[in-house]
Amino acid sequence: QVRLVESGGGSVQPGRSLRLSCTASISFINLHLMAWYRQAAGKQRELVAEIHDNGYIVYAETLKDRFTISRDNAKQMLYLDIDDLKPEDTAVYFCYGEGTRNYRGRTYWGQGTQVTVSS
Hints:
Order of helices and strands: EEEEEEEEEEE
Shape: globular
Mean pLDDT: 95
Number of helices: 0
Number of strands: 11
Radius of gyration: 14 Å
Largest sheet: 7 strands, mixed
Strand content: over 45%
Helix content: under 10%
Distance between the termini: 40 Å
């Protein structure tokens, strides 16, 4: 069973920075697309950013100034750097992957990591 595992969440003050990490139980070469989503309480899950295995990146238009997605295939890590955190960034952040090669057509979600921004 393929697993994605997030880490790095927590409670932070507004204006601080945070790095979220995600790793997978399969090689990243089998995940042609990886992404971060978030879901605030009472709201729908929304895309934060996605990164393709060729390096192509898409950000949610309203978030691109403070969020940076990156992936390190050698280290098997996906990252999301968040700068200048705001209370409205409070949400559960999920790692997402789409398979390729032997995992073609399959999608995977992590269980999420909570980020709470408050003073």
